[in-house]
Amino acid sequence: MSEASYLKSLHLVIKHFAQSVEFDALHSPAAILTKRDYKILFSNIESVWTVSARFLGLLERVWNHNPILSPGQICGLIAEYAARHFDVYINYCTNQMFQNRKLGELKKNNDFMEVLTRLENHPQCKGLSMRSFLLLPVQRITRLPLLVDGVCHRMDTASPDYPVAMKCLHVLQKLAKQCNEGAKRMHNLEEMTRINQLLDFRNVRTIALVSESRSLVKQGQLTRILTSSQGILDKWTRRKELLHLFLFNDILLITKKRGERYEVIDSAPRISIHADIIQEDQVTNWLPNGSPRHCKNLFVMALLEKTTEYIFSADSMSERTRWVEATTPSQQVNEDETIYESWDCPQVQVIERYEPNQPDELQLEESDVVDVFRKMADGWFEGERIRDGERGWFPSSCTVEIVGEHRRAKNMRQRYRLLHSMQAFN
User: Fold this and answer.
1) What are the residue ranges spanned by the domains of the chain?
2) What is the 3-state secondary structure (H, E, C) of 14-44?
3) Which residues are in the DH domain (predicted)?
4) How far apart, in whole angstroms, are the C-alpha atoms of residue 333 and residue 350?
5) What's the number of CA atoms in the CB half-sphere (13 Å) around residue 384?
6) How many other C-beta atoms can be found within 10 angstroms of the C-beta atom of residue 204?
7) Segment 21-58, tens digit of pLDDT
8) pLDDT tens per residue across span 127-181
9) Tell me, which fold does domain 3-196 have in CATH?
10) Which residue in 114, 177, 314, 321 has its CB near the most CB atoms, within 10 A?
């Protein structure tokens, strides 16, 4: 999408949707939206349009003065303007989560849906939904680094324009990262608030969970296996229980789910937790009578300050690995996983969009390319997204492995430029 067509689409969002009689709560007495709903739904999209319009005007003026612009001149203009004015994208991306939720809430209202359907069916929308138009700024700021990276790829590294293009790439990558971090920060703060409202501290010290510095690393259900030394009856069905763990960047909460709430039964600073995988030949060392039926993928988690040990069973090998590494990094690997060095790792291309279910998972868009550092036997991969260096876990079923030395070399060069630009301008 060119800058002109992008600007035209933003203009449509504002004129056709935001300033419609039914939606414009700031100026129209007939609006069905409240001012608060309006501000959340359309965020600062008018500011984004203003910045984009001025940017296009700048490009047109420079082009009219000199129709033959070098790549370095174009990249220089982009870098300078983006560094000064593109912070409006950070605000827009930061508010995107609230925007999406508000749109979902409003769609439950029949009056809103009637107006929205009528507006979306207008010929100038060309069959696209309002949400697809609202996503344009997010997509634009994500794709700009890729466009400039394509320019860098075609340039001679000895050209005087090359350092200018690389500086532009760094500016845009930094901006895209700030947008992503802003969105994550808002999502994290809301997640902390939501979890805090579900916790009960009955027999343990209450912890003030909500903090901008605290983030959720991983959560999920694990089966705890209780040993006979804890005074439990000998029936194995009485010697296991389901626990729900919340691991934050600084603390672990171990809870029992009771209805829709979670009772905290134990906690520990993250720094004082140690976890180890229990190999098949080690099971009887921890459980003299063996593990209960259907309890596989065992590991032990020790809360060092309390000298308390929990023996857990995970649903899969990859889930066990992720829990162990989240609490005790740099563990030894086993035969159920394959580790690759960054210089010799396979690459996969995304064929199906994937939305993370856990904080340690990687969001994937179609056509994304990912370096794979680890393959688990149950089909989960750990890797790094080439376009921004983000690392995480994802199911291999939504990807295909890239074959062919030429294609792989091209992607490796893109990754090299990403790393080089980060190092050169930090």
Assistant:
1) 3-196, 201-327, 337-424
2) HHHHHCCCCCCCCCCCCCCCCHHHHHHHHCC
3) 1-182
4) 26
5) 17
6) 15
7) 999 999 999 999 999 999 999 999 999 999 999 999 99
8) 999 999 999 999 999 889 988 988 888 888 899 999 999 999 999 999 999 998 8
9) Dbl Homology Domain; Chain A (1.20.900)
10) 321
CB atoms within 10 A of CB 220: 16
Cβ atoms of 179 and 88 closer than 8 Å: no
CB 101 within 8 A of CB 194: no
What CA–CA distance (Å, rounded) separates 214 from 178? 18
Q: What tokens does 301 get? A: 């988690």
Contact in structure between 352 and 342 (CB atoms under 8 Å): no
Alpha-helix residue ranges (DSSP H) falling in 15-135: 35-42, 45-65, 71-85, 87-94, 96-106, 110-120, 130-134
What is the secondary structure of 311-373 as a DSSP string?
EEE-SSHHHHHHHHHHHS-SPPP-TTEEE--GGG--EEEESS-B--SSTTBPPB-TT-EEEEE
Going by pLDDT thresholds of 50, 70 and 90, the confidence category of residue 284 is confident
Four-residue CA torsion sign, 157, 163, 168, 171: positive
Secondary element (H or E) of residue 8: helix 3-12
* 201-327: CATH architecture: Roll (2.30)
Amino acid in position 264: V
Residue 330 confidence class, pLDDT cut points 50, 70, 90: low
Residue 383's H or E segment, with its range, is: strand 380-385
Distance separating alpha carbons of residues 7 and 52, to the nearest angstrom: 6
Amino acid at site 191? E
- CATH fold of 337-424 reads SH3 type barrels. (2.30.30)
CB atoms within 10 A of CB 293: 9
Q: CA of 397: how far to CAs of 339, 350, 389, in Å?
A: 19, 9, 21
Distances (CA, A) of 235 to 87, 124, 295, 422: 62, 69, 15, 58
